[in-house]
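Lecture notes, unit on protein representations.

Consider one protein chain, 316 amino acids long.
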Amino acid sequence: MSAALPSFDDIRDAAARIAPHATLTPVMRSDALDAMVGAQLHFKCENLQRGGAFKFRGACNAVWSLTDEEAARGVVTHSSGNHGNALAIAAATRGIAAHVVVPEGAVRAKLDAIEQAGAILHRCAPTIAAREAKAAEIQHATGAVMVHPYADTRVMAGQGTAVLELMQQCEGLDALMTPIGGGGLSAGCSIAAHGIRPTLAIYGAEPEGAADAALSLVHGARIDPFTPHTICDGLRALIGESNLDALRTHHVDIITVSDEETITAMRQLWQALKLVVEVSSATVFAAVLKQREHFAGKRLGLVLTGGNVDLDALPW
């Protein structure tokens, strides 16, 4: 899936566009976690964003970028949870319809949140091909505007606003790290970060069982098809073509982590920060723990992407 990459100006425009609707999320610190890794960790708490995840930024920018004529037809997407929830909430801020295609087996708590936000749910088989096909079918039937979870210029621009905020809140960072799934967040944040400081080191954390981005960079071409096997439900999407280009252009260094390492990191984040952080978000801290010697003494910005957890199915 491919889309034009946003410019730094696109991301700044998105920040202004979503400002009336999005939450300016805090950056949190923990002396205990700093001591554990020997570095200064600055956690951008997007788990406290509207809808419980960074996804609201991109969805909101997409919805408010539409002309009145486009908006009247509504929006459609496919999502395992957070993007669908975000699009439903964003659509409600403009009073338009939202259709969300959800794969069988998605986290129940996330599906409940999408419905509560007012979206119309459409179910499909748990494959990327099935999701894309069902979304196209709905788009054809309703005329709704497709807002892809990550291969959408407007969405990437919106996601990049998280790092605009982070770098204003924390000056002098040595490095930035985000989780990597479809790549919308990592693409937008890389463009934003290097728009402010071109020499900033950028990292991505990816589950070993869904390491298609890391493999694609090694092989020099996008790995497709790819079947993920990871507890990190928010990071199972195949990396987008343009998103992969952004990783190459901005020299994003990917660190892969096991589900066991991620679950351990998730528990430590809950304990130290007193925050509900979902497992996909914990990959960034798991990556720092795994390579603590590499990050020793550095000031790191880590994006905690979401906090939408099924409390009846915690991984410990």
